[in-house]
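Subject: Interface between my chains keeps coming out wrong

I've been trying for a while to get a sensible model of this assembly. When I model each chain on its own everything looks fine, but I need the whole thing in one frame so I can look at the contacts. Pasting all components below, labels as-is. Any help appreciated, I'm running out of ideas.
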Amino acid sequence: MEIISTIQQFCVRRTELSNLGKTLGFVPTMGALHEGHLELMRRAKQENDLLVVSIFVNPIQFNNQEDLKKYPRTLETDMEMLESVNCDLLFFPSVEEMYPEAINDNYDFGKLANVMEGAARPGHFNGVAIVVRKLFEIIEPQKAYFGEKDYQQLAIIQKLVKMIPLSVEIIPCQIVRENDGLAMSSRNMRLSENERFAAPFIFQTLQKAVKLNAVLSPEELKNWVLTKFSTQPEFKIDYVEIAEDQQLQAVTHWNDANGVLIFIAVFLGNVRLIDNMRIF
Ligand code: PAF
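Reply #2:
Try treating it as a single job with all components included. I did that and got this:
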C-alpha cells in the first residue's frame, strides 16, 4: 500500500494512474476502521482497478469539540485492516495540508440539511460537504462508496455532486451490523462493556417498529418507539423520525411517500449512536 500525505504528491500519482487508464474506487474515512468500512472497501476494490482510502479526522464537521477530542484514533490497526483488503493507496493528509487557510464555503442543501443530524449538529453537513468535495477534487475517483448508516450524509453527498457538479458516481452500501444487530460504527469502540451489552436494543426496537406500519400511523409508531426507550434508563433519545427517503421530511401518512424509513439518534452514556431502517 502506498501512503501519500500531500495533495501535490497525490495529484502527481493520480495523473500517472489516469494516463495508464486506471479507474479509482474511493472510500473516505475518518479512520477507526471497522468491518463496515472494510465492506465498502472490498466492494470498491472489486468494482475498480484500484482502491483509494482516505483517513482524515475532519475537524470542521464536529460541532462539539469534546466529540472531536474523543474521536477514536487507531492508526496502527487501521493500517493492518487496509492491508487486509489490499488497499492500493492511502491518502493521509494533516489538517494543515487540507486547510492551509480558513474555509468559508457555505452550502445550501435546503430542507434536506435542516432535519435530524442537520438540526441536531449545526454546521456538521457543511463541514462534511467541504471535506468531501475537496477529497473528490484531489482524488478524482470514478466511484465513491458511502454507508447507509449515515443515510442523511449519503443524501447530502448525492446532492453535492449534482450541485457542483462532480462526475464521481456515489455508491450507497447497506448497513453492516454486528451479530447482535448493532450497526457498526467507530463510536462503538467508546461504549463500556455494559453499554455495549445494552446497545442492540436499538436494532431490536427498530426491527419490531418497521413491522407495525399496518396498525399504527407514523406519529403513533414514533410514540411507540419513544415509549419503548422510556423503559431503558441507560438510553437518552435525541430524535426518532419517520421520514420519506428523498428529502428526509417527516411523513404524517404512510401514503405521503413511496419510500419511508425510521431514523433514530440516541445517547448511550455519552456515546451518540445513530441507526435507521427502511419501513417500505
Ligand atoms: O462518514 C465519515 O466517516 C465522514 O463523515 C466522511 C465522509 C469521511 C467525511 O469526513
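Reply #3:
Confirming on my end. DSSP finds eleven helices and nine strands in the chain.
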